[in-house]
Amino acid sequence: MRSLVRLFSVLVVLIYVQPSLATMVPNDYEFVPEGEVEDTAKLIGSIKSQLKDHRDAHAKAHGCVDGIKVKVLSNLPRELQVGFFAKAGEEYSAILRSSSGPGVKTASDLEPGAQGFALKILLKPEDQKKVLSPPGENASFAPAEYPKHYKTFDIVTISRAREFFVNKVHDYFDFFGAQGAIGAAKAKAKAEGKSEEEIAAIGPALLKKLYIAPEGKAPRLKEAALLGLLGQAKTKNPLWETYGSWVPSLYGKRAVKYEFTPCEKVDPDKYEVPIEGWDTNPNFLREVLKYELRQGDQCYRLRVQFHEKGMPSVEDAAYAWSTEISDYVDVAEITIPKKEAGKELISEDLCETLSFHPGHAFAEHYPIGGVQRARVGGKDKEGKEYKGIYTVISEQRNLNRGKTPIFFR
Ligand code: HEM
Fold first, then answer.
1. 305 has which bridge partners?
2. Best substitution site from 68, 149, 390, 392 to test ligand 1's pocket, by max atoms within 8 Å of Cβ?
3. 28-84: per-residue pLDDT in tens?
4. pLDDT per position as a tens digit, 85-96
5. Quick one: 2-162+234-407 is in which CATH superfamily?
6. Is the CB of 375 under 6 A from ligand 1?
7. Which of 22, 78, 147, 222 could form a disulfide with 318 if both were Cys (CB 3.0 to 4.6 A apart)?
8. Is residue 329 classed as helix, strand or coil in its secondary structure?
């Protein structure tokens, strides 16, 4: 009888502590909820069904910049010398894609909103072997002369916030639905000749009704605060912004969020735009980026914030990690090099083709938490790998552009 009781209690403990599904890299942080694999597939289906020949989010690039130097800090403490950061003082070359948030290429820079900053770090052959490709990705669409662009370490960030305005994968359906409804209502109002003010009021009203406080559901207050913050962001220089990953990744056995911040403390709202007529130019951020690149090297730092006990779960993407408990620490120095006039940006075609993907990472830095699993894919109950949003969507948009994949293995 006693052994039966013991067996029963072991089973209870196992059922309680075992995540319901497997994770890509075993860790102490993730807990995969039932239904997430199905939700991810549904989400991919919705995005794919309306996908054109460009990114479905962050469609408009201000530009891609190459020759960026990423140097692991020479004096990086020994306990932080892990994975990509294992060799203190080592230098790598990277490509930056600076973008605005909306899923249309015609988005106006005069409208408020956060900006994307995606870094693709090119690796040496011995390090390329350590990159764990995201499930289902075995090809690159970059030209054959760029095989280095396949096995890279990518860090994808956005300005002005440190958390994501969608807490769990399942919540994304309400957000996605609200976005669709807003687009349709705005188009209708425009066709009916409604005033600018009337059209501008549609977004906040529908967002509130369908996402922030939908009938019969608890209001999403943290998400509302984050969306409010991003809705006020008036970016004037992409190189004066601080950018965060919003969602976590591993750093060895620990969990972190990433941040890129200018070395010199600057107030992004105080930047005086040096471009004549910028305040009527919907594409002025590209001009500012090029202007700043011509002026000289720009210095950024890559920092990480470690997850500590008592902080919100990595599964709750909208919940802040307190900097009072764990402040960001520097791990690498980034130099965005001075460029000659006319040579500031790489070709539009390559910039458009490249996939900046949070799943392009060493096992030691693999993305974790629900939102990340939806982006990069994972393993289902049977341990079978399934593709994530970025893998399917970046492939499909390139196929839609008539690009041919190059297979590497
Ligand atoms: C479930 C949540 C999310 C969905 C459905 C989603 C969807 C997408 C899609 C479809 C793309 C285009 C990928 C491509 O075609 O190459 C994209 C790009 C991007 N996403 Fe997300 N995303 C999510 C979460 C996030 C989060 C948390 C961040 C925070 C940093 C983020 C930042 C970006 C950026 C900066 C890009 C542009 C990357 C580039 O320059 O190529 N996304 N996202």
1. 257
2. 390
3. 999 999 999 999 999 999 999 999 999 999 999 999 999 999 999 999 999 999 999
4. 999 999 999 999
5. Catalase core domain (2.40.180.10)
6. yes
7. 222
8. strand
* Torsion angle in degrees (nearest 10) through CA of 127, 55, 183, 98: 70
For 334-364, write each residue's pLDDT tens digit.
999 999 999 999 999 999 999 999 999 999 9
Map out the domains of the chain as residue ranges: 2-162+234-407, 168-219
The conformation of residue 208, written as its DSSP 8-state character, comes to: I
CB 92 within 8 A of CB 70: yes
Q: How far is the CA of 347 from the centre of ligand 1 (A)?
A: 21
Distance CA 144, CA 285 (A): 31
Nearest CA to ligand 1 atom 41: 356
Longest dimension (CA), the chain: 85
pTM attached to this predicted model: 0.94
Give the integer Cα–Cα distance in Å for 32 and 22: 8
Give the pair of three-digit tokens for residue 190.
């425009």
Q: Which residue, among 220, 312, 187, 310, has the nearest Cα to 257 in the 3D structure?
A: 312
Q: Which residue has 């109950």 as its token pair?
A: 381
Please say whether the beta carbons of 100 and 107 come within 8 A: yes
* Contact between residue 135 and residue 22 where contact means Cβ atoms under 8 Å apart: no
Residue position matching structure tokens 């209690």? 9
Strand pairing category for 139-140 and 131-132: unpaired
